[in-house]
Amino acid sequence: MIEIRFHGRGGQGTVVASKIMADTISKEGNYVQACPEFGVERRGAPVFAFIRIDNKPIYDKSRIYNPDHVVVADPTLIEAIDVTEGLKEGGYIIVNSEKKPEELKFPEKFKVATINATEIAIKHNLGTLASPIVNTAMVGAVVKILKLAKIESVLEAVREGVPVKPKDNAAAAKEAYEKS
Amino acid sequence: MSTLKTLNGNQSIAEAVRQIDPDVVAAYPITPSTAIVETIAKFKADGLITSEFVCPESEHSAMSVCIGASSAGGRVMTATGSQGLALMWEMLYIAAGLRLPIVAAIANRALSAPINIHGDHSDTMGARDSGWIQIYSENCQEAYDNFIQAFRIGEDLKVRTPVFVGLDGFIISHSLEVIQVEDDAKVKKFVGEYKPVYPLLDTSRKMTVGPIDFTDYYFEHKRNQIEGIENAPPVIEAVGKEFGQKFGREYGFFEEYRMDDAELCIVVMSSAAGTCKDAIDELRSDGKRIGLLKPRVFRPFPHEKIAEALKKMKAVAVFDRSSSPGAFGAPLFTEVRSALYDHKERPHIVNYVYGLGGRDIKVEHFKEVALKLEKIAETGKVEEIYGYINLRE
C-alpha cells in the first residue's frame, strides 16, 4: 500500500486532483481510495487530501498519519505548516517550486523533487496569473516521480475529469510528466 | 454491462437515483449529503431523469412533500443528515405510520451542539424508534447497492415501510472509491415497476389519508405498522440474495469477517468496520482467534441471528458511533446484549463509544480493544462494561 498526503490551498483544485489521481490509478487496474475533503474549506486556507493505492481492496478508512510521500501544490505552505509531519523516512516531498530540490533544505532523510507547476499552468492558460490552477500539472509530476502509472492513463483521466479546458489540462499534465 | 466508476458516496447514491428514476425527489441540501441533491438536480437539468424534483424551504417540508407524493402513488426519495433529519422528525413518524415506502439516503453526521459537520450515527440512532427500516453501508459500493435494494424492501406489500440507507458523513460521503456501477436496464429491472396501494390519485376509489384515530383504533393501527417492519427480515434476505445472483454481491443482515473458530469478536457498523478488518487481519496473523461482525440492518434488528453468531464467543466488544446519555450503554450495545440474554451460553460483552463528531478510529484502537477482550476471556472478569475510544479524559 502506498499512502500519499496532498497539501494545497482551498480553490487550487485539490479535490479535482484527487479525483484525477484516483481515476489514473484505477485505469491501471489498481485499487484506490481518495479522501479529498475533511471539513469546511475556505479559499486560500491550507487543505489536504489523502490517497491510498494498493493492488488489493483497501479497507482502512482512517486518516493517514504516516504517509509514504507528500505532495505540496503551493510552495508558500512550506512556511505555513509542517508538510513533513509523520512522513516516513525515505519518502518523497514533491513540491510545486521554481527552486532546485536542495534549495528547499528539507532534512536529508527525505527525498525531494520539485516541478514548476505554476509556470506550466500559466503557460497552458489554466487559472489566472494571480491564481493559476496547478492541479493537473502536479498530478502529472507525482505519477511520474512515484512511478504510479503510464502517461496515457494520466491523460485519459485528466480529459475525463477536469471541469474545463480538457486539452490544456492534458497538455499541462503531459509537460509536467515529461519534465519530472 | 456494468462499469467501474470513481465515485464518492454521495455520487454513488445519485448514480443509483439516476438509474431508478423515481417519480419524485424532494430534498433540502445539508452537509455532508449536499452533493446527492446537487447531482440529482444536475441529472434533472441534463434530462437524464424524469423525476419531479422539488427543492422546498426546509427538511420538514421536504419530508412533507415526500409524504404527499408517496400518498399520491409515487415512488419517492430524499436525502439528508444530521440537523436535516432532526428537522424531519415529526414527519418521519407520519411517513412510517401511513406505511409509505419512501427511501431516504442519510449521510450520517453528528448533531448540534456543539456544531459539527462530521460523521457519526447520532442522527439515525435518534430516529431509531420512528418506524423506519435502517440499513448502514461500509463503503461507496455498499451505499449504492443498499440504496437499490431499499426500494424493493420498503415497497414489498407485506412490509410497506420507509427505509433509511446510511453512509458515514465525509468518511464515505466524500471519499472516492472505484465502484461497480451496474447496467441501467438491469438496475431498473431489479427494482421493478412501483405499484402503489390505495393511491390518492386513483379518483375511482376516493379515500382519506391520515384521519384521526383516538382510543378506539390507534393502538390496532400501530400494531399493524409494527407488523410491517417485523415482516421485513425474510424480504431483506430474499432481496439480498437476488441482488447477489444478479450482480454478484450478496447481502444479509450482517457480515461475518474471519469468524470461523473465533473466540473473541468486535461488533461495529459502517465505515469503521473496514478499518476493523485490517485490525482483524493483523491480529489473526499474530495467532489471535478474533473476528468481526458488521451489522448491516439495524432496524428491524436481527436479534436471533446475531445471538446465534455471538453466543459461543468468550468475549465481545460492541462499538457504537453514537451515545445514549444516561442509558445502560449505547444503542447497538443494548440491542446486542439484550439479544443474548435468553441464551444459557453467552459471552462477556462490553461497549465502546467511538468516533463522535467524526473523531478518527484507527487499526491500533481495535487492536487495543482486542487485548482487553483477550484479558476478559482469560480472567472471566469485566472491569468496565462501557468506555470510550480515542477520547481525552
TrEMBL record, chain B:
Q: Which residues form a coiled coil?
A: none
Q: Does the keyword Oxidoreductase belong to this entry?
A: yes
InterPro entries (alphabetical): PFOR_II, Pyruvate:ferred/Flavod_OxRd, Pyrv_Fd/Flavodoxin_OxRdtase_N, THDP-binding, Transketo_C/PFOR_II
Q: Which residues form the Pyruvate:ferredoxin oxidoreductase core domain?
A: 262-365
**One GO biological process term:** response to oxidative stress
UniProt keywords, alphabetically: Oxidoreductase
**GO terms assigned for molecular function:** oxidoreductase activity, acting on the aldehyde or oxo group of donors
Q: Where is the Pyruvate flavodoxin/ferredoxin oxidoreductase pyrimidine binding domain?
A: 16-239
Record SUPFAM superfamilies = Thiamin diphosphate-binding fold (THDP-binding), TK C-terminal domain-like
Pfam families tied to this protein? PFOR_II, POR_N
State the name under which the record lists this protein.
Pyruvate flavodoxin/ferredoxin oxidoreductase pyrimidine binding domain-containing protein
Q: Which organism is it from?
A: marine sediment metagenome
